[in-house]
Amino acid sequence: MVTIRDVAKRASVSVSTASRILSNSTKEKFAEATQLKVLRASVELGYRPNFVARALVSGKTRIVAAVFPRIYDTPFTALASLQILSGIEAYCSENGYHLLLSAPQVSSGKVDSNFNNLLASGYLDGLIIDSHFDIDPIMTALRRFKLPTIVLGYHPHPYYLRSDNHLGGRLLMQHILELHHRHIGLIALPDGMSAAADQRLSGIKAVCEEHGLDYAALPRFNGTFSSQSGATAAAALLEAHPELTALIALNDRIALGAVRQLQAMGCTVPGQISVIGYDDLPQTHDSNPPLTTINQQLSNWGPLAMNMLLTLLEGCEPEPVILPPRLVVRQSTTPLNEFVRREGHQR
Amino acid sequence: MVTIRDVAKRASVSVSTASRILSNSTKEKFAEATQLKVLRASVELGYRPNFVARALVSGKTRIVAAVFPRIYDTPFTALASLQILSGIEAYCSENGYHLLLSAPQVSSGKVDSNFNNLLASGYLDGLIIDSHFDIDPIMTALRRFKLPTIVLGYHPHPYYLRSDNHLGGRLLMQHILELHHRHIGLIALPDGMSAAADQRLSGIKAVCEEHGLDYAALPRFNGTFSSQSGATAAAALLEAHPELTALIALNDRIALGAVRQLQAMGCTVPGQISVIGYDDLPQTHDSNPPLTTINQQLSNWGPLAMNMLLTLLEGCEPEPVILPPRLVVRQSTTPLNEFVRREGHQR
DNA sequence: GCCATTGACGCAAACGTTTGCGCTTTAGGG
DNA sequence: CCCTAAAGCGCAAACGTTTGCGTCAATGGC
């Protein structure tokens, strides 16, 4: 390993001079000739600074962590995480940072010890935490160390980035109403299970009230995160309420499950029943029919969150970010046709 | 920050004694009383060793990197990466290692500078590299540093882990032949584009020869990695060869695209035509019909690769690993029915 | 009772940087 | 010609550990 001492020796200057010329961006005054000597020696020897030593004295590692809690042993969930992760990595790399990935095991209110070690290790300059699930244990573990932190999602924290799920819910409902549907089923999640889902529901409710609809009266069936639960829900809803002409699913996976179930039951989508999802998963492009859904700009999350973290690391106060979701109209929703609409009105 | 010096002072011992008692697992002999004093002082003060300092002297950071090259700006591809990553992370964490994620930009034979910095930084004890795409530039950049490395896939390297894609190809073809199909279309990738795909094709070819079929005569259409290209391929194949009763796709995405296209053309799957994919992507469980495909045990890759890396870090020579893939029969393939079979034989 | 051995611990160097401060030289002003 | 200031550079401490070696006392054998 070639150290700065070697460079200094070859350039016949002191170590401190070499260090200042090589790393100190604040150009202290050095003779042109000296600078050249050092620079040349550096490249000739192929000198690369040892970040560990640098970190020890500066206290800065230029490493940040992305934390995706691992709940019930399920890995950080699916492609959404990957998109975010990819964005963080890219932005990190552009700014000379390195990304450490951590998926701490959270069980019975405790975080695994390796995560605690990581926090105390001094390896991290800051972190970005996904609060898709309950991260209270993580945040309490984190409090002891004064590490700059950005939170993704609804966990209460001064610096956060989230999508406006209320607005997303509104878009969902408005789209369905504009298509003249009035008999609308809801495949939701149990209240309180996910802050994001709750917000989506609140958006739906708000639109209902604006249109004089009784939100509480909407046929509703609670699923989970699996596509199978979407299928179950669709079957149950249609059996209890054959008059339904539209189904709102709170995420794409249950929407896709619902579509599959409907088709298996001989129901055409969107011919007889419109289905709308939420998340804009990649596979919704290619599903049959392509799914109308809500896009959360996931690919922007990583860079934006990392940008917030960087301003925090520079000692400034980043503004929280709330991203507006967008409706993506594909082919799983269609206007209620005249015949059915009239029938609907008769009831 | 509470340092080991504080602990030593509170226990009224020297720093070296504290260090040895706290970290040196090779229990040098110390008086019972001294050990207790130090341990107690340590917990009372909440001492956590600074890994950076420890790394500086020991030369070991207990950080390893997972490298997923970013080609043409596409992020590390999809869920396969995520499954592997999740496995690596879990195994890292269990063994007290930390995982750094790097997705270096590779363009025109060069790797971005941040990746080079990472390699030279001294931050890494070792790395696991995904060779899904061409990683020559990465490997040459890596050669200058003597970092223990495991390669995932077919890139030539002493320590590798891969799935037996030749066997996978065999399974693919055997399954189709056992279902009595004889008019088989191939949605492949251009030769040489992917070592894994080439291997799959070689397996298919081998089975053909064993059954006296002319591999070269199989109707074939080359796609890419997108599901759209699968749709295009299916349409083209069926138009040129209406007699086909089975389609082999070299990956699930193009298989799903093909299924969608077939259904749009009024072809039932598997009623009129069987389709088989490769990869066992999660969405193939829920597609309509659920796809018959090949599973590569991706969730085992991470732990196995990490295990190899750990033995390498301990100074031993790990054995390369070749995992056998498994056929997953779902509902997109079915035996050729009698009528069609007889017709098939007549031609 | 003396010497060698062993057990228990401390001293200080080392890892590769950064950085506060001080030293020398030169230039410039009076 | 002297004094001051600035320019250019080096010394050495510091960051928090680990670890080779040395020291001291106690112990045991003869």
Return Rg of chain A in Å: 27 Å
Largest interface: A-B, 60 and 60 residues
* Shape verdict of chain A: elongated
| Total beta-strand segments of chain A | 15
Provide mean pLDDT of chain A, rounded. Answer: 92
Helix segment count of chain A?
Answer: 14
Low-confidence spans of chain A: pLDDT under 50, at least 5 residues? none
The largest beta-sheet of chain A arranges its strands as 3-1-6-7-8-14
Instruction: Note the gap between the termini of chain A.
Output: 82 Å
Record keyword descriptors for this entry.
homodimer, 347 residues, alpha/beta, six-stranded parallel sheet, four-stranded parallel sheet, 15 strands, 46% helix, elongated, DNA-binding
Describe the structure concisely.
Chain A is of the alpha/beta class and 347 residues long.
Can you give a write-up of this model?
2 copies of one chain form a homodimer. Chain A is α/β, with parallel strands linked by helices and about 350 residues long. Chain A is about 45% helix and about 15% strand. Chain A has 14 helices and 15 strands. In chain A, the strands form 4 sheets. A 6-stranded parallel beta sheet of chain A has the order 3-1-6-7-8-14, with helices on one face. A 4-stranded parallel beta sheet of chain A has the order 10-9-11-12, sandwiched between helices. In chain A, strands 2-4-5 form a 3-stranded mixed beta sheet. In chain A, helix 11 (about 250-265) links the parallel strand 11 and strand 12 (about 275). In chain A, helix 1 (about 5-10) packs across helix 2 (about 15-25), helix 5 (about 80-95) packs across helix 13 (about 300-315) and helix 8 packs across helix 9. The longest helix of chain A is centred in the first third of the chain and has 17 residues, at about 80-95. The first copy, chain A, is elongated and about 90 Å long. Chain A starts with a helix and ends with a helix. The mean pLDDT of chain A is about 90. The interface between A and B is large, with 60 and 60 residues. Strand 3 (about 100) of chain A pairs antiparallel with strand 3 (about 100) of chain B, so a sheet runs across the interface. The structure holds a DNA duplex (30 and 30 nucleotides).
